[in-house]
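Students often ask why inverse folding is considered easier than folding. One informal answer: many sequences map to the same fold, so there is more than one right answer. In these notes we will look at a single instance of the problem. The structure comes first.
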């Protein structure tokens, strides 16, 4: 039978480490049998009837119990015993596992089901939808306001760079009720019930071993900062592979790291190192921000200077081309009438030179006739300046 290799004996041999008569440390009418008497004994119908009769004698007057009443009580007792012997109820969060002579026979969904009475068939009712929680490296106390007590024997681990780290974590697991092994013709819940003797201890030891292996392959700095989620996933996968190799019928839902710190004796030094690295990261970010600001500004200024130089170049070239074209035009006209062109060029030059100077006009013909030779003229520009100054003074 599948339980012989765990307990070393049959139901009546006391195997399984319990005081009952079942193969897993519980009596055939104990936990998970679908109802019945605790303590490992089947209900004694004769004893039940005797006790009922004694109680009725105490209640009823002297003269004995009538035959119809006794028959009715017997029928009720037989119905009750028959119901518990042939029927069992599976709750919504349970799965009924029926054993026939100690061997897995079938599993039943939630509801009311029939069975052969003990010792032919026995029913186990594991909680297949409940998520179980196991703490490693700490012990939570519900009576002391949610305080936790550290367990150094479980939490202290050696990292890959030969540092010691204090890791507290929680493992959440449940039974693989939906799994069925076609090769062994064994359901996941049957694996859970028959292949491992103490599921909680097994999961806890596998969790501690997996965490130590993952931490031993990692450096301490990533564990303290950014690699917590990566570590949790690696531990979960390693635990699942290990439990699957045991055919444990257990699914690891998640692994949550509660605390990852250096040992308490050196935690202050580690915090100083963390603060220094945080300052280093902050200064690097400030330098990167300044560089990201200055470099684009310098590139923009360089581009502006280049564009300005290109514009000046284009302007100068176009002006030179225009001057050359103008000179060619003037030269063409000069070739037609050199004297007229020379005189016009002289007049235009004099106009540009004397445009912004004070001018006195002399008439040579007037000086020859005995005059002063100065030609009087009306300085309109000076009159306009004087009228403007007078208006401002008022």
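Output (designed amino acids):
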């Amino acid at each position: 039978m599948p339980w012989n290799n765990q307990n070393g004996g049959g139901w009546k041999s006391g195997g399984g480490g319990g005081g009952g008569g079942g193969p897993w440390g519980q009596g055939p009418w104990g936990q998970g049998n679908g109802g019945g008497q605790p303590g490992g004994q089947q209900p004694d119908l004769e004893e039940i009837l005797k006790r009922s009769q004694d109680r009725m004698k105490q209640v009823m007057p002297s003269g004995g119990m009538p035959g119809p009443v006794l028959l009715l009580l017997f029928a009720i007792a037989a119905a009750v015993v028959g119901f518990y012997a042939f029927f069992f109820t599976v709750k919504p969060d349970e799965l009924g596992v029926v054993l026939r002579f100690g061997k897995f026979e079938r599993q039943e969904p939630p509801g009311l089901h029939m069975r052969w009475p003990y010792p032919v068939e026995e029913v186990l009712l594991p909680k297949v939808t409940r998520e179980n929680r196991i703490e490693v490296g700490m012990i939570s106390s519900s009576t002391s306001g949610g305080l936790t007590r550290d367990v150094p024997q479980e939490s202290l681990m050696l990292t890959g760079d030969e540092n010691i780290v204090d890791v507290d974590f929680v493992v959440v697991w449940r039974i693989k009720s939906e799994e069925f092994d076609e090769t062994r013709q064994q359901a996941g819940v049957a694996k859970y019930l028959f292949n491992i003797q103490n599921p909680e201890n097994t999961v806890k030891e596998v969790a501690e071993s997996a965490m130590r292996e993952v931490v031993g392959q990692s450096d301490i700095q990533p564990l303290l900062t950014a690699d917590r989620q990566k570590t949790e996933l690696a531990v979960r996968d390693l635990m699942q592979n290990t439990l699957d190799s045991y055919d444990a019928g257990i699914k690891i839902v998640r692994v949550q790291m509660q605390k990852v710190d250096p040992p308490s004796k050196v935690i202050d030094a580690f915090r100083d190192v963390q603060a220094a690295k945080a300052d280093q990261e902050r200064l690097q970010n400030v330098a990167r921000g300044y560089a990201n600001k200055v470099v684009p500004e310098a590139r923009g200024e360089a581009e502006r200077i280049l564009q300005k130089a290109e514009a000046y170049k284009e302007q100068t070239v176009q002006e030179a081309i225009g001057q050359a074209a103008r000179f060619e035009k003037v030269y063409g006209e000069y070739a037609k009438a050199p004297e007229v062109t020379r005189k016009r060029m002289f007049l235009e030059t004099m106009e540009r030179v004397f445009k912004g100077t004070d001018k006195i006009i002399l008439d040579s013909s007037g000086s020859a006739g005995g005059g002063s030779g100065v030609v009087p003229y009306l300085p309109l520009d000076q009159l306009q300046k004087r009228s403007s100054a007078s208006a401002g003074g008022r």
